[in-house]
UniProtKB/TrEMBL annotation:
The chain crosses the membrane at residues 20-43, 55-77, 97-119, 126-146, 152-169. Keywords: Membrane, Transmembrane, Transmembrane helix. This is Phosphatase PAP2 family protein. The keyword Flavoprotein does not apply. Residues 59-167 form the Phosphatidic acid phosphatase type 2/haloperoxidase domain. Signal peptide: none annotated. Gene3D superfamilies: Phosphatidic acid phosphatase type 2/haloperoxidase (1.20.144.10). It comes from the Bacteria.
Length: 177
């Protein structure tokens, strides 16, 4: 919140408001598309055919678990009822759902895809690319004033709850259970 109120006017004053807003929107919203495309590619092309059912089941359960956990946590704990742009009385710099904002759905979704690429497709290179884009998306969402840092950190951490579906399965497979 302090970052937005202190630095945002200075950023727009010196770089040209419209250009910076377009770049922030592109980062905050537009980078979701390449993360999704990399995830689809990795899960379709890099997962061996004999493992697809198991991997796809794990990805589905991990995503659903993270989503349900996010909705439960979001209904129990909301640090702010208003988003930063509403508090500051300015327009939003990126798209958003009409809800308080904790946890960030963009952070949750892109991190879940990143984890699916890492654990499901077992491609650490593509996962690192997705992780960098996910972090950029999170920073963009904060700069666009649609989320606080706590919102995006919450989304990232809650997405990690889905890891429970990847690890136990690999341990069972390792021990032939």
């Amino acid at each position: 919140m302090i970052f937005a109120s202190v630095y945002w006017p200075a950023l727009t004053r010196y770089t040209g408001s419209m250009d910076l807003q377009w770049i922030v929107k592109l980062i905050a919203d537009g980078l979701v598309v390449p993360v999704v495309l990399i995830g689809v590619y990795a899960l379709i092309k890099l997962v061996p055919n004999k493992e697809k059912y198991q991997v796809y089941s794990q990805v589905l359960m991990a995503g659903l678990t993270a989503y349900v956990a996010a909705k439960i946590i979001g209904s129990i704990y909301q640090p702010d009822q208003m988003r930063p742009f509403e508090i500051l009385g300015v327009s939003a710099g990126a798209s958003f759902f009409n809800n308080p904002g904790f946890p960030s759905d963009h952070a949750l979704f892109t991190m879940a895809i990143t984890l699916a690429v890492f654990f499901g497709a077992k491609s650490w290179r593509l996962a690192v690319i997705c992780l960098v884009m996910t972090i950029l998306i999170c920073v963009g969402r904060v700069i666009a004033l649609v989320h606080t840092p706590l919102d995006v950190i919450g989304g990232l951490l809650i997405a990690c709850v889905g890891i429970i579906w990847y690890k136990p399965m690999s341990l069972l497979k390792k021990h032939n259970i």
